[in-house]
Every structure is written in C-alpha cells, then in structure tokens.
Design goal:
Blueprint: H1 3-23, H2 37-41, H3 53-63, H4 86-98, H5 109-125, E1 133-137, H6 140-155, H7 160-163, E2 171-176, H8 181-189, E3 197-200, E4 202-203, E5 208-209, H9 211-223, E6 227-234, H10 246-255, E7 259-263, E8 288-291, H11 293-296, E9 304-308, H12 312-318, H13 349-383, E10 388-395, E11 398-403, H14 410-427, E12 433-437, E13 440-446, H15 454-471
Parallel strand pairs: 2-3, 2-6, 6-7, 7-8
Antiparallel strand pairs: 1-9, 4-5, 8-9, 10-11, 11-13, 12-13
C-alpha cells in the first residue's frame, strides 16, 4: 500500500467510524450473532494471494459490525462501561499511525514524559496525596498482579524471585469474597495459590470487609506458621458495588506490617468529584490503588492507572536491567517498563492528554454526576412497580433489581429473572448483565456510557416495566 492509497483508505476508515458512532444508537446493543456464524462465513485457510483493499473493507462492513456488541451505544447499561470519547479515538488514530514502542525513555521520550505529567494530573484530580506516584497499565488485572507480586516479595524479603517459592513460607493474602475475580487470577499466577487467598466476612451497609475478622484471620495464620503478606480491598465491587472501610482495614494491616492494595477500577473515576471521596475515606493510608480511566472518564480502552505511595517495593520486585535496555547518556530518566510486567508499552498517555484537556475536569464531573443522579431517579421510579424489587440501592450509578412473582419459589424466581434478562437483551434496546446476591438471581444496572442521556435512561425504564409485565402475564 503506497502513501496515497494509505491516505485514501485511512480517510474512508475515519469517515466510517464517524458514521458508525453517529448511528450506533440505531443498532441492537448486544450482537445478535449466533455461535460459529462468522467462522462459517470465513475461509478455513489463509489466502495465498492478496486481495484489493476495497474487497477487504467491503467484507469488514458486511461481516463484522453485525457480530459486535456496541460498547459505545448510549444504552449500554451492562458490566461497567468501556468508554471511548471522540478525542480519545482521534488520539488512538495518531497513536496507531506513530506505532511507537514506549518501553523505556529513549525509545520515545515524549511518551514517557507525557505519561508522567498525566499521572500527576490524575493524582490531583482524584484528591490523592502528593507523594503518590503511578504508572499506566493495560487493565486492572495487571495492576493487581503487580501488587500481589510485590506483597509476596516484600513478605519473603525478596527471596521469591531469586530462590523460587519451593521451601518458602506460605504467604497469605486477605480479601472479602466480593472482590473481583482478577484477584483470584493474580493469586494463581503469582504462585501463592487459591488456598492462600483468605476470604474475610463482610457486613454493614456497603458489605465491607469486617476488620475484627481480618485481625482474627491474621492471628490464626501466624499461629499456624503462615506468612501474612497483604490485604486487597475494593471500592465499588463489580457485582453490586461492595466497598470496604479503608480506614478500619488499614489500621489492622498496619499493626502487622501488611501491604494494602485497593481495587477502585470503576468507582475510582468518580473521585474527581469531591463529594464522593467519603466512599474511600482513608485512601491516603494504602500502599497502592488501581483506577481505570477507560471505564468512566472517556479514555479509550486500554488505560488503567496504578498509583502507589512508594515505588521502591515494586521496582525491587519487577525491575531488571539488561545491557540492551540501558540509557547510558541521560541521568534521572524514568523507564516505565520497570514498573510493569510486559516490557513492551503502548503510547497510552496521548489519549489521556486529549480527553483531559478537551473536556476538563468539570466536563467529566458533570457526566459522572448526571449518571449518579439518573440512577437514583430510576431506582425510585422502578420501586413504584409491584413487579420490581430493588435488591441493592445505588452505589454511585450501580444498582440491582429483580422481577417478582408471588406465585413462584426462590428457584422459580431465579429462572424467571434469567428469562426476563434474556428478553431484555434479545430485544436489543438496552443491554443489562446478571449477578447473584445470596443465591438470588438479580440484574445489574449501571449508568456510565459516555454519551448516555436522560432520555436513554427513561427508555430503559419503559423497556424494563413493559417486559416485566409481559413476563408475569400482566
């Protein structure tokens, strides 16, 4: 492809993207594609001879959009959002054109230094203490794995990487049973093992980890010869917004010298609004925090920010200095690959810069405040229906509900709600996701899509109530 053909198709692709975003609300939110439908439509072997790009682009338009769930649809209320504001998309186009590999300072100094500035901006925006530093990862799963590896090495006095885990004391990590499944994976990958992830009971209005139970578990483990290594807390858990009392948990952790990591991947973005910061009171006491700007700040996936009070334990755990990665002639530069698991790094800071400058913090705050307010109004409206039970009240913009039918058992209600959810999602006007609370099948509703409007929320309410009546035969 020569430069002019590249220009022509790049412009066509950009125009396709603009038209797609302009009309995405007309599509069903969740893909109607059936299993193996695309596999059957594609050849089983790669082509020996290339095809004109026009044919390739035509096949893209014919085959791919139909098979996508549209995360930028304004009525995407499932999971947590993966937003991509238009300035972020433009930045990603530039990032793709540049295609820099930003592993160390000298491989792209501007990428490293812009990342440093963006992280300082976000420390300020989230109201974190000035001593916090950070790094940009792909996802929260990576940040959590880094935190768990750091807990392990710190507890083992840095012997794990050098000597291996065989023969070492068994490390123990403490968390509630409401933290994200990425914590389990981090425990597996780190070699700590599932049996050494100690689940602490929760209580209180936000289903917080019980600090007395945490202390008792640590004492029991120490008496049994285990090595307590760290505590993982959550603010705004994925299922229904469970949040730990950071102050109380940190007080216990500090008694035993344990590293504390907080998963605030979704809810952390709301902390640009000062009025929500009471939800993570005590955050200045933790060792590290993960927040995903790609969830609620409009910065395109992937973009996960990992903040820490002291970088030295992370660097001691992960940094490695082969000769071919040295920057010999520049003192004091930062190589972000030493803070992460992958060596290779994308230029993620550019889209952060574009979004934060274009909207400003106040523009982003307005969106988040609207989402929270609309969620509260929607809950009150749904409460008026005898067919709907609000199972958990809004935590920020996330709540859960279920369909009621007095003639059914709990098992029958669970099946009814799965059928209710299927009908909602198959219709395509809105997209919701399931979860369970104490064995009850419930439905999650979270407002967070960047272009969602109050009218979209009203349409969602009408859809839920209409299909609820159909499901129970009213």
């Amino acid at each position: 492809m020569d430069a002019e053909e590249f220009r022509d198709w790049a412009l066509k692709a950009a125009n396709w993207g603009v038209d797609y975003r302009k009309t995405v609300s007309e599509r069903p939110v969740r893909s109607p594609m059936q299993p193996s439908e695309l596999i059957a439509a594609l050849p089983g072997e790669p082509p020996e001879v290339g095809v004109p790009f026009e044919e390739l682009f035509s096949d893209f338009e014919r085959l791919i959009p139909h098979g996508l769930t549209h995360w930028q649809h304004p009525r995407f209320f499932a999971y947590f959002p993966s937003n991509a504001a238009p300035p972020s998309v433009i930045a990603e186009i530039l990032t793709a054109a540049i295609s820099a590999q930003c592993m160390i300072w000298q491989t792209s100094p501007a990428a490293t230094e812009l990342e440093t500035v963006m992280l300082r901006w976000l420390v300020t925006a989230f109201g974190l203490p000035n001593e916090f530093d950070g790094v940009v990862h792909d996802t929260a799963s990576t940040a959590t794995l880094v935190a768990v590896l750091t807990m392990r090495e710190r507890a083992l006095q840095w012997r794990g990487n050098q000597e291996g885990l065989s023969g070492q004391q068994r490390c123990r990590i403490y968390a509630s049973d409401l933290v994200h499944s990425s914590i389990d994976r981090a425990i597996w990958i780190s070699g700590i093992g599932q049996e050494n992830l100690v689940r602490i009971p929760t209580d209180g209005p936000h289903n917080s980890l019980n600090p007395q139970a945490l202390r008792a578990a640590i004492e029991t483990d120490m008496g049994a010869g285990f090595l307590p290594a760290g505590v993982i807390l959550c603010v705004g858990g994925t299922s229904f917004g469970a949040s730990d009392q950071i102050n109380a948990a940190c007080e216990v952790a500090q008694e035993y010298g344990l590293y504390v990591h907080v998963d605030a991947a979704w809810a952390g973005s709301a902390m640009i609004c000062p009025e929500f910061r009471s939800l993570w009171q005590g955050i200045e006491l933790v060792d590290s925090i993960v927040i995903n700007p790609h969830k609620w700040l409009g910065i395109q996936f992937d973009c996960s920010t990992h903040f820490f009070r002291d970088a030295s334990p992370i660097l001691k755990t992960l940094a490695i200095h082969p000769d071919y990665l040295q920057t010999y002639d520049k003192a004091g530069v930062r190589d972000y690959c030493e803070y992460t698991i992958p060596l290779g790094r994308r230029f993620r800071a550019l889209k952060m810069w574009f979004v934060l400058r274009y909207y400003g913090l106040e523009g982003l705050r307005t969106r988040i405040r609207n989402h929270v307010a609309w969620s509260q109004v929607l809950v009150e409206e749904l409460r008026q229906s005898p067919l709907i039970e609000i199972c958990t009240p809004p935590f920020l913009s996330l709540f859960t509900f279920r369909l009621l039918d007095q003639s059914l058992s709990e098992e029958g209600l669970n099946l009814l709600n799965l059928e209710f959810l299927r009908r909602i999602n198959d219709e395509g006007l809105i997209y919701l996701s399931p979860t369970k609370i104490d064995g009850r099948q419930v439905i999650r509703f979270q407002i967070g899509q960047f272009d969602c409007s109050e009218a979209d929320v009203k349409l969602a309410k009408d859809c839920i109530l209409r299909l609820a009546a159909e499901c129970v035969g009213h």
